[in-house]
Amino acid sequence: MKFFIDTANVDEIRKANDMGVISGVTTNPSLIAKEHKDYAKTLAEIASIVDGPISGEVKATTTDAETMVKEGEAIYALDPKHMVVKIPMTVEGLKAKGIPTNCTLIFSANQALLAARAGAAYVSPFLGRLDDISQPGIDLVRTISEIFANYPDIHTQIIAASVRNPIHITECALAGADIATVPYKVIEQMTKHPLTDQGIEKFKADYTAVFGA
Ligand code: G3P
After folding, report:
1. Could you tell me the CA-to-CA distances from 103 to 70, 93, 150, 153 in Å, in that order?
2. 55: Cβ below 6 Å to ligand 1?
3. Which atom of ligand 1 is nearest to the CA of 128?
4. Atom 1 in ligand 1: which residue has the minimum CA distance?
5. Sign of dihedral through CA atoms 77, 79, 80, 83?
6. Start-end of H helices in the chain
7. pLDDT digits (tens, 9 = 90+) for 80-102
8. What are phi and psi of 98, to 5 degrees?
9. What is the Å distance from ligand 1's center to 26 Cα?
10. How many CB atoms lie within 10 A of CB 1?
């Protein structure tokens, strides 16, 4: 399983990229709005930082396929090597063709299967939001993964999204997600273990006792 970072904050993206753990970025209209910066410029800046797929979503107010494709082409043109166009899972969204797409807001296996057959490069099941309504989100990731594995002609990759904590990450890896897109805070949480902190302190104490600072 690979890691993408799920944010539009360029400082967080730079920090995660410097760690060497991320191979792409996902954004959405909410995440970009949080930064209060120009939509297209933010996507272009992100694409200049990370050498991997960068998902930029069509406008949250767009509902028809024709406009989605026009906006998608503009997003793709920002950086054709990196940009992937995020399209919501709707009948109109499924019609968008001719650009690499990440079909987002997936909440059922059938939605994922339709998106795959419509040619999406990625599907993004939102596990945290299913957990929020008392449905185990990880079951959806596992089911999609099992279905896609039954059909070798499906090359759509599963991006586990709406990841909220480190347990989600381990579960996604076990469930067969190709990618987990992770907020910066969760990447940091994944680095932590109390025994690691204790070990560092002990090495420091033993070293300085003999060799000084
Ligand atoms: O990748 C999708 C993500 O940004 C949504 O996360 O926590 O708002 O459900 P959340």
Report:
1. 16, 8, 20, 18
2. no
3. 9
4. 161
5. negative
6. 10-19, 29-35, 39-49, 65-78, 91-95, 109-117, 127-132, 137-150, 166-175, 184-191, 194-211
7. 999 999 999 999 999 988 899 99
8. 90, 0
9. 10
10. 15
Out of 86, 95, 202, 204, the active site residue is 86
Task: Map residue 16 onto helix, strand or coil.
Answer: helix
pLDDT of residue 96: 86
Task: Please state, in angstroms and rounded to a whole number, the distance separating the CA atoms of residues 132 and 110.
Answer: 20
Q: Categorise residue 186: left if φ over 0, alpha if ψ from -120 to 50, beta otherwise.
A: alpha
Contacts of 116 (CB under 8 A, 6+ apart): 123, 148, 154, 156
Rounded to whole angstroms, the Cα distance separating 71 from 66 reads 9
Cα(102)–Cα(2) distance, integer angstroms: 16
Tell me whether residue 86 is one of the annotated catalytic residues: yes
Question: What is the value of pTM for the model shown?
Answer: 0.95
